[in-house]
Amino acid sequence: MSEPAARRRPAPAVIGAWLIIGLFVLVAIVGPLVTADPARHTASPLLPIGADRHPLGTDDLGRDQLARMVCGARPLLLVSVTATAVAAILGIGAGLAAGYAGGRIDWLLTAATDVALTFPTMLLTILIVAAWRPGAAGLVAGIGVTLAPGLTRLARVLTAAEATREYVAAARSAGARASRILVREILPNIAGPMLAQVVMTLSIAAGFAAGLSYLGLGIQPPTPDWGYMAHAGQEFLYTAPRLVTLPAAASLLFVVACNLAGDGLRDAVDPRRDR
Predict the structure, then answer these.
(1) What's the average model confidence in pLDDT over 186-200?
(2) CATH topology (fold) of 68-274
(3) Which of 72, 202, 261, 272 has its C-alpha lying 20 to 30 A from 218's C-alpha?
(4) How many helices (H) and strands (E) in the chain?
(5) How far apart are CA 227 and CA 244, in angstroms?
(6) Which residues contact 125 (CB under 8 A, 6 or more apart)?
(7) Torsion-angle region of residue 134: left (phi > 0), alpha (psi -120 to 50) or beta?
(8) pLDDT digits (tens, 9 = 90+) for 105-134
């Protein structure tokens, strides 16, 4: 087997990462339908792991920790996926326009992208979320806007390279409009590398969503959210460390899985990595 073919074969870690992502999605969709009410005070506070009818114990208010962990997956996935979609629409759209149009449009969009990338991403996200208001909408807006420039830069480079190819020249000579060329001709040819980058962007979005919720700028109680759960559990770090470690570990596992999945996808679809 040739080296490029071997390199494109999915590694066990990549396959495992996609399985973990699928498991998280399944838990987010089905979990809240089959678990107890995560906001109901059903037992004594701070029951340990393995307590009767509470496999993960209870939190400081007597709420079932397993139900809160299961229901906490949905806000993280919804925010991170929606924010990534916003970043993809803004970033890829701007990159396509810049790479295809060239000239002044390219210069303006590239300059705006470079300026945006000079700001610390987390700080810029915090400013946008704080200016909006804490909650899911603010998280989506802040994360989506700040992660878009990274996608813009890659989309511009790929589009500029494709714009010089013969099939684009043939479409122009046939009278096709720029929008049709971008959507029907160029976008499908850069979809592989862009999809891999979008999946990796999802891991960043998930990390930001959990981190901002930990700071109190994300999903607000009583909705269970892993970031805020880790923050609320700090007070009991020594007496009930699971209140911090479980939501933090779940968030970290999802971020790492998305990163591995995106890296594996990039190896599989980007032919330049085989040269």
Answers:
(1) 92
(2) MetI-like fold (1.10.3720)
(3) 261
(4) 11, 0
(5) 9
(6) 142, 143, 146, 208, 212
(7) beta
(8) 999 999 999 998 888 888 889 888 888 877
DSSP 183: I
- Within 8 A by CB and 6+ apart from 208, the residues are 83, 121, 122, 125, 139, 143, 147
**Residues 62, 54: Cα–Cα separation, whole Å:** 10
At residue 165, the 3 state secondary structure works out as coil
Are 202 and 268 in contact, with CB atoms under 8 Å apart? Answer: no
Other CB atoms within 10 A of residue 136 CB: 19
Give the pLDDT confidence score for residue 6 in this predicted structure.
43
Q: How far is CA 2 from CA 152, 183, 275, in A?
A: 34, 34, 12
The tokens of 95 are what?
């990159």
C-alpha to C-alpha distance for 184 and 174, rounded to whole angstroms: 14
Report d(CA 211, CA 134) in Å as an integer: 13
pTM score, whole prediction: 0.89
Residue 275 has a pLDDT of: 41
Domain extents in the chain: 68-274
pLDDT in tens, 224-272: 999 999 999 999 999 999 999 999 999 999 999 999 998 888 877 765 5
* Structure tokens that stand for 243 in this block: 């209140």
CA 78 to chain centre: 9
